[in-house]
Predict the 3D structure of the following.
Amino acid sequence: MRRFLIDAIVYVRDLALGFSRGWSRFFFLPADPTPLGLIRALVGVLGFWSLFVIGLDLHDYLGSQGWSDAAGAYDAMPPFGWSLWFYVPDSLLRVAWLASLAVFASMAVGLFSRTTSILAWIVIVSTVRRIPIALFGFDQILSTMALYVAVSGASGRAVSLDRLLKRWREARRNAAVVRPKGARKVSPDGPGRPEPSVGANIGLRLLQLHLAFIYGMAGLAKLRGPSWWTGMALWGTMNAGEFAWLDFTWLAAWPMVLNLLTHGSLALEIVYPILIWFRLTRPLMIAGAVALHLGIAVMSPGLAEFGVAMIVANVAFVSGTWLRSLVAGRDDEQPALRVLYDGACPRCRASMALATAADPDRVVEPIDLTAIDVKTIHPSLTAEACLRSMHVVSRSGKVESGYDAVTRIGSRLPLFRPLALLGRLPGVVQAGRVAYNRIASSRPRDAVCTDETCGIHPPVSVTGAASRTRDSSAI
Amino acid sequence: MGRKTEQPRATVAPSPAVDPVLEAAAAAASPWPPWARRLATLALAVHVAAVFGGSMGVPPSSVLERRFADAFAWHHGLFDQGYAYRYYAEPPPTPLIQATLRREDGEIETVNVPERHVAGPPMRRQRQLALANALFSASLPQLEDPDREGDPRRTWLARSFARHLCRSHPGAESVTLRLRQHLIPSPDRVLEESRETGGPFDLFAPSMFTEPRWIGDFPCDGS
């Protein structure tokens, strides 16, 4: 008996210690903020869109005399409920709405991320409390994601203008410093991949737990519905006239298809809370969830935003490294581009500082051609040609120069990819090359550059770069 | 939770399967001091319990579940996280509002919320469907039992809807609110009617709607 009691106590102690260690490991290790940054951006877009649509009938919903009059809605709020919309007079409603849209826009692009994330959550909850009669599942998911993004305080550490601007400032500061042998460093202090943080971990973990809980509850609730057992539940959702926009009545002749879709959806919701935590089954669960929500969006366009919000929430389970590799390539594929730039040209340094600041990992490797023998980079390169225009050497050995090199760099950096695509359109390419050559040939340099060495016009201003440690023109 | 297979490792071949937290967790120890972890643990535990309680306290639920949920009413009110997430447990017919507005000149105008076609993005109509659903949920007890005393929430909501309709339709003298439901046809019915007509089934045929049920008459006098 004594042995039994001792063993029981030891077991309980080990259980408590194991749980404590597991809890700490689960919540308090630093995590890659990339998924959280992406979620922040998408929550910003969804919040903006939702409020924009409400704004089409602004006074009907948020006005004091709207569908739910302010006094009645205030009284109907749950205990401790709150909403800033109750304090906005009708005359200022449009202004407050525009300000709220600006908050969501800032959140989406990641400007003042920490502040705008909190403000966005306040706007979302305020709207939920003001018009609880006009909500659907989408609003619940949006509110949950916004809360965790705000609580983490780390969503601006990735996929944000905040980070880009910080890194750009760092890179420009570095670019102004002359290093030994005259070479310049034109990149920020830290690496392109964002630094892991505990705040990001807490935000992601809460979102993961909440999402698993939502699927689990949705699945368990469906077990009460007979149509989920008979395999015909999706018939009801696909043929509810108020929701459907495509004719799915032909499926009446294909009950087995309906059975398969119904049982598949239910099975996914029930097993998701378990299998999402295992590495091997996680992609399967995420793929299933994406398929389910895309299916809902196709069946019912009114619920498209709900589907998108659920897919966005699933990003919490996706590897940050993998997400980054989608745009930056794998580790062994980097640097994808080696860029030979004129380190004696302030404008070139500033451009490279921007490119490296926007680098999601280490896609671009800037090389100051004034400090090396360019032939060591690629045998076909000459110093004269490199000084005439920027050159880019791909991993495959392909060399591009001038405007084509600029668009090549842009195409590898997510932020500039749209511009690079535009820049490669017929007509734009020709104009771009002319503009680039004109700018490159008239660029100012720190050092004397004669026609004999550079093949370009004499510089506008000549200063002794070697004698200076800082170049204010680069800042 | 799959810990053994999720050890941090070199990321030469990134995979979507890797847990975003564990892949970055090369350090075994948290950079947070113990007091911060304890404080955060307390907050996290309360939050997790509140979310759990919120979903359990919604009917049908036990007394224990309701009491547990009630303990976190403050949290649900402050943070808006007390939802049940019981989506589509049984796909129901869709409620719709039918408002009959009588003008001073005797003319009668019927407004449906939502109308079949609402200009703008689909989400705009979805919000209107939510309005109808809210009024239906508030009116359900009385619709099921007409002798039942008026629910204050129903009275408030219906009156608010009516007032809004009066204001948005100048010249209206009174408004009568009714609710009807858009039914979901059974597959057998669809097959049968398709065989008979030889054409596609019309989900908006009059027979697909229930008879409008009276919610209330409201004068447009601002009361």
